[in-house]
What does this fold into?
Amino acid sequence: MPDGSVPRTQGRFITLEGGEGSGKSTLAKQLGARIAATGLEVVLTREPGGSPGAEMVRHVLLSGAAEPLGPFAETLLFAAARSDHLETKIRPALARGAIVICDRFADSTRAYQGALGGVEPGLVSKIERVVVDHTIPDLTFVLDVPVSIARQRLMRRSEGPDRFEREAPDFHEKLRVAYLEMAERAPGRFVVIDATLPPDAVLSKALEAISSRLGLTVT
Ligand code: Z5A
It folds into this structure.
């Protein structure tokens, strides 16, 4: 995706990225509630998943059932899920003028399958261009948090690790670097937030960026 988006809808497309336990879901919910309180339509969604078809693929991916097929096949499955999600949920919402907030999107494929998974980044970009096309996020937050802090947060959760959470700590350090590099390469689209701050401070930083980057003031 290029730096900055192509004007194509009345709505706004905001994505949240970062490692596990960085606080994406927490921020997505808070942002959704604050923006909806202004009277705008908000569509909160996530990847992999977000539409009935894509949620089925989510299960295949996160259970580890697709792991034996290798990272390239997993990339194609993430792309298939994304294509359905875009077609049935994201694009119709943007066309109605909604604010779409998506917990992970195509940058997760760049990071997990491309930078970390060994799928050639040029190939990841080609697939992304076909699937995402002009539906490029207007704003992407990277929630940046040291792996040790994210782990402590996740240890409080009761469910077991998914296929990606089972990776070694070194994987997650590299993931953090991959996201920071992506943000550095495309400063017009990305905003990095220090996610060690308390949730309300993270929310304030995100709202400030939504105001300055998208001209959407949420009081
Ligand atoms: N994946 C991929 O490989 N390729 C792709 O293209 C896509 C995804 C789209 C999806 O996992 C996995 O799929 C993901 C990448 C891969 N795997 N990993 N790892 P998921 O959807 O199940 O989970 P996740 O996206 O990694 O999110 P998460 O683990 O649920 O974490 P989070 O949403 O970032 O954090 P949270 O749930 O908001 O917060 C975690 C805890 O910290 C919780 O107790 C909060 O109350 C607490 N928290 C949150 N914010 C704060 C702050 N600011 N301070 C203190 N405590 C906080």
